[in-house]
Amino acid sequence: MITQKAKYALRALTVLADADADEPVMISDIAAQQKIPKKFLEQILLDLKHHGVVASRRGKQGGYLLLKPAQTITFGEILRIIDGPIAPLPCLSITAYRRCDDCDGEQNCQIRHVFAKVADATRKVLFSTTIADAIAPKHSAEVTRLLA
Amino acid sequence: MITQKAKYALRALTVLADADADEPVMISDIAAQQKIPKKFLEQILLDLKHHGVVASRRGKQGGYLLLKPAQTITFGEILRIIDGPIAPLPCLSITAYRRCDDCDGEQNCQIRHVFAKVADATRKVLFSTTIADAIAPKHSAEVTRLLA
DNA sequence: CGAATGTCTATAGAAATAGTAGAGTTACAC
DNA sequence: GTGTAACTCTACTATTTCTATAGACATTCG
């Protein structure tokens, strides 16, 4: 299971992706629109900012905006920032590798081989799907309606 | 990440799969062989027993054995017992479905579609791999050595 | 200036994780 | 039929993670 926090982060990003690229969106607006506790969302957006995903403007007329195009922000990237490693085992993590001290020899680890496949399959989906993809169905549905 | 407990469970099952089908293996032996805290392993095996995966014999000469062939015990099945739902979102779980109260309409949920793909990919691997598969490489390596 | 907005750090309650403890039950060996 | 070696069951605990909440601070616009 991914955390609630990660779900909030992804939802928040879809809001930013939906907004005009140069118009900052206020935390309160995002929170209201996606039913996210405001103070919690503050932390999440700050975290995303520190990781170079979003930018912010302070003061009146302030808010958040995407720092790069929605097509370049993958689900995997966000999950790593918020939830940590994608891999199901520490010894399979790319960003936070840690040897399993209870198995001798990764080549022989029977469990590892199976979860390596899981990790591969998961990464394939998470890093090939972007925030832009997430909001696309909505747009195409809109287009469909307009063309009807 | 899967829990340590699940890793222990899978390791313990490979030990049982490696043993003679009618010779019970003692908890202490499994614990020693796989470096699992004994008292913790007790709980795990008991849990697996209650879910019909393994059987036990009490008293002297007692121990645990598989209740069904290793080829029929999938990783997915064990993970569900020990760690709970495989799905990354409650609203995608087969065994523990729960509606997300913060998204209106699952058809529209942008996040859900992506994680549905993740869940599918994960399940495909986890339910097509069995304990027998996990110990297979070891056996074939053994065979290779014997034939050399 | 002052109000609106993001920034940062601390705190806290609840749940999950990873064990540990110990009393109880069963079954084999003798 | 007793002793002991094994599994059984329940409860407890320490640590960490999750999900927030609180409040003082900093910045910007009008």
Keywords:
homodimer, 148 residues, mainly alpha, two-stranded antiparallel sheet, 6 helices, elongated, DNA-binding
- Strand pairing plus helix content of chain A: what structural class? mainly alpha
Poorly predicted segments of chain A: none
- Average pLDDT, all residues of chain A: 91
Shape of chain A: elongated
Q: From N to C, what is the helix and strand string of chain A? A: HHHEEHHH
The side-by-side strand order for the widest beta sheet of chain A comes to: 1-2
Overall radius of gyration of chain A:
18 Å
DSSP E strands of chain A, number: 2
Biggest sheet details of chain A? 2 strands, antiparallel
What is the tally of helical segments of chain A?
6
Question: Approximately how much helix is present in the residues of chain A?
Answer: 40-55%
| Subunit arrangement of the protein | homodimer
Our estimate of the beta-strand percent of chain A is: 5-15%
Largest interface: A-B, 37 and 38 residues
The termini of chain A sit apart by 39 Å
Task: Describe this protein's structure.
- Chains A, B: Keywords: DNA-binding.
- Two copies of one chain form a homodimer.
- The first copy, chain A, has 148 residues and is mainly α.
- The first copy, chain A, has helices spanning 4-18, 27-34, 38-50, 75-83, 110-126, 131-147; strands spanning 54-57, 63-66.
- Chain A contains six helices and two strands.
- In chain A, helix 1 packs across helix 6 (131-147).
- Chain A is elongated, with a radius of gyration of 18 Å.
- The model of chain A has no long low-confidence stretch (mean pLDDT 91).
- The A-B interface holds A 1-2, 7, 10-11, 14, 34-36, 75, 84-85, 87-90, 102-103, 108, 110-111, 113-115, 117-118, 121-122, 124-126, 129, 133-135, 137-138 and B 1-2, 7, 10-11, 14, 34-36, 75, 84-85, 87-90, 100, 102-103, 108, 110-111, 113-115, 117-118, 121-122, 124-126, 129, 133-135, 137-138.
- The structure holds a DNA duplex (30 and 30 nucleotides).
